[in-house]
Specification:
169 residues, alpha/beta, globular, single chain
């Protein structure tokens, strides 16, 4: 029942993911959520984010930011993050934003991963688009009220996800 919301894998942070390993496994594009995935909500790109995007581009991995935020927020972050491609008003969890991101990067679902912090928008949208999803823990506890409410429901899904993950081991 909840499996439609399960990520393909999870990590403590976007900064803990082995992108080198993903590259060796054929990944050529990474789609990122911004808020609470790369930086706290509404924060500008920090040095850690800038270094991550530089590292990815040096590896030969294309990047695209996919956000439900407005253009000024997403465009400013993209510029600061080394000129990453971006999509604002992405309408997540709709799959069109994910498909558009792959088109911008010149990749397909097999060679793309998505990294985000929310199950019902980020992960669910990636799954609908056929993209491998990596769920990361939110960077900061301060969030908008509608997200806070979704976190309670996410906790239920994550309980079953972690239980099922333990059973597989």
């Amino acid at each position: 029942m909840f499996k439609v919301f399960y990520p393909d894998e999870d990590a403590a942070s976007a900064y803990d993911i082995s992108f080198e390993k993903l590259y060796k496994n054929g990944i050529r594009g990474v789609i990122f959520d911004i808020d609470n995935t790369l930086v706290p909500h509404d924060a500008p790109a920090d040095e850690r984010a800038k270094k991550l995007f530089l590292r990815l581009h040096e590896l030969g991995i294309e990047t695209c930011l996919l956000s439900n935020n407005k253009e000024p927020r997403v465009a400013a972050f993209a510029r600061a993050a080394g000129g990453s491609r971006y999509i604002y008003n992405g309408n997540k969890p709709g799959k069109k934003g994910y498909q558009r991101a792959m088109k911008l990067m010149g990749t397909d679902a097999k060679h793309t991963v998505f990294v985000g912090d929310q199950l019902f928008t980020d992960v669910y949208g990636a799954k609908r688009a056929g993209i491998h999803s990596i769920l990361v823990k939110p960077i900061h506890p301060k969030e908008e009220i509608q997200i806070v409410l979704k976190r309670y429901l996410e906790a239920v899904v994550l309980y079953f996800y972690r239980r099922d993950k333990k059973r597989k081991k």
